[in-house]
Amino acid sequence: MDKLSDIGTIKEILAKYGFSFSKALGQNFLVNPSVCPRMAENSGADKGVGVIEVGPGIGVLTCELAKRAEKVVAVELDKRLLPVLEDTLSEYDNIKVINADILKLDLHKLIKEEFEGLDVVVCANLPYYITSPVIMKLLEDKLPIRSITVMVQKEAADRLCAALGTRQAGAVTAAVNYYARPEMLFKVSSGSFMPPPKVDSAVIKMTLHDKPPVDVNSEELMFRVIKASFAQRRKTILNSLSNGFGKDKSSVSQALEKANISKTSRAEQLTLDDFARLANELLIYSKETSDDLDV
Questions:
Q1: What is the pLDDT of residue 295?
Q2: Nearest-10 crossing angle of helices 35-43, 60-68
Q3: Averaged pLDDT score across all residues of the chain
Q4: What percent of the chain has pLDDT over 90?
Q5: Is 252 found in the same domain as 116?
Q6: For residue 284, what is the domain's CATH number?
Q7: Which of 161, 184, 187 lies closest to 174 in space, CA to CA?
Q8: Per-residue pLDDT tens for 12-27?
Q9: Do residue 169 and residue 258 come from a single domain?
Q10: Using the 8-state DSSP alphabet, how is residue 209 labeled?
Q11: Domain range holding 272?
């Protein structure tokens, strides 16, 4: 269907099906006609490529993906949008809409059943309230996907794409960098949406690593170290980890020294390699002293 990003067309479609926006689901539909083609082009959608889309809305981005990709599977939580999507996507035979919660979906099973023989990418305009949970699920599930291209709140995009070792970096920055290489693609103003949100957005792309960029003996422990370090980011790494793990400072201090990390450093100053070395030293300490770190 043409003109899906036209405000008049959107209002007409929504009125036809008696649809009203849900604030709880963070629904904001794109009305800027230039955004979705750029997202689809940057996502890697092409012949021989399958795309998973999260939250298709009325199908503006879905259509652009379907024009380029071999197949698109759109996962929509709001069942009220199913008849809308059946209408707006009717001219495409390479789209499948699934009514499900992406956070509860078995994506390994979905990819195996829907994209056999295809490369797979993810492309989505994510509701702000589930940005981090969705991104982390896509990464932590270790799916056979090439990349994740998403539109998120501008502030979240800045943090996700921040360089580790800088003030903008956070725990999620470190986690994302372990699994992928994030990059900022372009900004999207609040006026590009209906209804317009109170903040601007940005499109980012995370290209997954073939293998992790650091050597770590326990991923679980490293992520616990990262989380504890940033939980009290104004404190020194020594105090943050002592509090976070409930351990005396001497044991943490010893691990920091062996990892060649200053006890007065703060989480935002550490690189992914620093966190990996520190986790490895804490694991060695745990085994040597039988001090249980729950790993």
A1: 45
A2: 40
A3: 92
A4: 76
A5: no
A6: 1.10.8.100
A7: 161
A8: 888 898 887 776 666 7
A9: no
A10: P
A11: 219-289
